[in-house]
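To assess whether ligand presence alters the predicted conformation, the chain was also submitted together with copper (II) ion. Input:
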Amino acid sequence: MRPRTIAWAVAAAMTLAAAGCGEPAPAVPGTAGPSASPGPRVVRVAVTVTGGKARTAQRRVKVPRGAVVEITVTGDTPEEFHLHGYDRELKITPGRPATLRFTAATPGVFEAELHRSGARAFELQVG
Ligand SMILES: [Cu+2]
């Protein structure tokens, strides 16, 4: 008798723990399925960065699971925008809006921050 179930449990725990900054996020499958509703909802978030400070209409953006999220970031200095959890990044060039588009398939609260200034942009709440 070999304790194979223990190895399984350890592997599962390690998978769940991998959610930190800079670590690769688990693959997020698309939401399109045979019973998908007529077109996903699109939620747009505009972020403006001036003087190292990020401004958004809401501090916490709530979206339903499965919605398409479109984040547009405009900055006055070179920046790096990072959405944790989904682990998506945007390189910001001064004066040029950059857009990130993805399907919010994973529920939870995810922090969006700017790496150069260290400022928190907003929190994305899915589900
Ligand atoms: Cu980060």
